Here is the input.
Amino acid sequence: MRTHEHWGYRGFLAELLEKLELKPGDIVRVRKRSLIVEGMLMPRELLYGDKPILVVRLNNGYKVGIKVDESTCIEKIEAKAFGERRVVEREQKAELPKVALLSTGGTILSKIDYETGAVKPSLNVSELLEWAPELAEVSFIEVREVLRIFSEDMTPALWAKIAEEVYRVISSGYRGVIIAHGTDTMSYTAAALAFAIRNKPSPIVLTGSQRSSDRPSTDSAFNLHAAFIVAVKAPFAESVIVMHGETGDAYALVHRGVKARKMHTSRRDAFQSINDKPIAIVYPARNELRIVGKVYEERSESKEPILENHFDNKVALVKTYPGFSSEIIDFLVDKGYRGIVVEGTGLGHAPNAVVESFKRAIDEGVSIVMTSQCLFGRVNMHVYSTGRKLLEIGVIPGDDMLPETAYVKLSWVLGKTRDVDEVRRILRTNIAGEINLRHTLDLYPRWSM
Amino acid sequence: MRTHEHWGYRGFLAELLEKLELKPGDIVRVRKRSLIVEGMLMPRELLYGDKPILVVRLNNGYKVGIKVDESTCIEKIEAKAFGERRVVEREQKAELPKVALLSTGGTILSKIDYETGAVKPSLNVSELLEWAPELAEVSFIEVREVLRIFSEDMTPALWAKIAEEVYRVISSGYRGVIIAHGTDTMSYTAAALAFAIRNKPSPIVLTGSQRSSDRPSTDSAFNLHAAFIVAVKAPFAESVIVMHGETGDAYALVHRGVKARKMHTSRRDAFQSINDKPIAIVYPARNELRIVGKVYEERSESKEPILENHFDNKVALVKTYPGFSSEIIDFLVDKGYRGIVVEGTGLGHAPNAVVESFKRAIDEGVSIVMTSQCLFGRVNMHVYSTGRKLLEIGVIPGDDMLPETAYVKLSWVLGKTRDVDEVRRILRTNIAGEINLRHTLDLYPRWSM
Here is the structure.
């Protein structure tokens, strides 16, 4: 009994599995009336509670739950139980390109401790390969835990820490590095790594999961597989986000970190490129990567990366709206903030009532960058008088940068220099593809109607 | 000479027009080598400076500039010069439905004072009909100036003023009301009117222009025409935004005000519905309106509108990000703010470091509403521990409301009551279509790749 309780199953289902000598990891065929399912037996899902639901992982990575009753027939096709640990070490092939997987927390690597059934935010290589054996086909994997946090708790200081770890890895002969990251703030971290590590020899790949790994609909294995393909095969050396490209399992998209944004609270294809195309499409089923966008930085083993990972934490991102009070700006200046990214309206406007506070801030050496809450398009402060007034007092136009990217960039620039002219110059210089000078009409998505 | 300088043309072009007895308003045919253009002669465009460029307005509303040289031939086809004022009064037909056009400022009604060539943010009916004669075909128009501001300077107090004026109009037998509004904050005002006027008998239509009326590519006439069609023909009585639906001139879309957002800094089709479909499509060329979405409130002359236009101005909209400091929340509470809408991450999260400040705010009677910077999708704070913690301390989930709409709604609710339980109850109740319980997959736009 104890064994099966280890795997979470209980009652008659636990007894049945024991009788059939089935353990998670075994390949099984389950028949129930007209339904036939073949795949890897998985531990019980916590979300099913005490219901007698058997969980089987299909070849495409999805898990299905099958309610077991008298009509259900379960056969063992192949004994590969995790407990025997025989799959793992053998499947790591030393001749494959070395990829480092850095875990920071988040949904993707959580809740896959099959033995205890408990939540565990990180894992070792054996556990990873038990769960996603396809990864061993493309790379020799090393797993390292850098952080163990929810991504909503990310900070500029932690960006610096991740950057240092990534720098260490890509300076020492790895084919690529993957960062498992919570999706909430993944694009901020991707932008931070784009700026903090210059002259990248290999890709820095962030990936995550929109559905927790203990849910049948999890996208963890799919995204991780796609991320490994990018780490190994990509001809570019940029900080990118690799996530589902649509709701199905056909492809993942590779978004330039500085141009990507989480645009949906729950969809698998939540991440999208704004004011830019994705760099590439990945078809995990075929281990294939196809370039579709512009490549800024190319992969090259001979490149020596440069680490510039100091981020100023006295920077704020502030959105304006009707009724926005200038006292918020005054407060930030009083508190010693050195930079403020404004998420203004339209072409880059803020209420005229706030202009005086901006002016005082700029006079006191605070850098103010204007972006647009429209997200799509480009700030143009020459068109209307409010914009011209803001330019005159010294507000820095953020071009077509996302407000979030401008925030990360300003924090990074102020980590390098406090010379206001230099801050303005670097802010307006394209460093890692964050400023896209050429917008084609098709960059704007097609909306349903 | 003076006459032509009045219309802005100068030098040899002024002399030529004088010789041909041509005035703006006349219908002309212009031939230049293989180019033939027919339309209404317009005054000089300021943006062409002193270049000898003749401006002709085509039947589709577009203006073209033609550089006049020796090879250019200009013929008068019909004398309809504006100066003669003979078009106007005659074209207002008293038997047509009465529509009030309220101007608040913004690009749409600006820069169409042909006689002085100066910027003039508002206009009278005669001027309007000279410029957009098609409007007189569908309605009897009254123009009223409510405000003369840039829309980035809009405030909750001004929403109240517009609402009062709109209420007065729709209480007195008008078929509909149109509000000409700058696009920067149009969706905030549209949401404010959705809440401030309940039991609407007729539609409240906001429209504007993404290109200034003095530019050849202006969308003013097109949008205004579409807005009039909605005011006259729509079977619904909601606060809506009517703007270009695509880059061409085929159709305009009618967006529910509480679900619309300006998603591009400069495109004509900048306004889009988020988490909802547009209510209708308008084909101005055919004077046609087609319902495509769900209608919440129906038009009915027998409905008595209710005015509830008090908005609390001690409400803030605050976006969180990595490194967001709780001192911003503390400051707002210290300053006596009664409501804070948080634009959090993902499913509705904020850094755990801010939870204490939220708790203190709530303990002091401040209402905190959680929305998502993803924009698309729905807040769900039951999935992860951070969300559950926020729910426990009393943060109000904003469901699928846009952060901007939640901000307007909270300001409106706090204008009605300060009872925290009542605030929560109204916040979570669907008032004007701002909460959409059913999301279909196609609400997410299709992104280019």
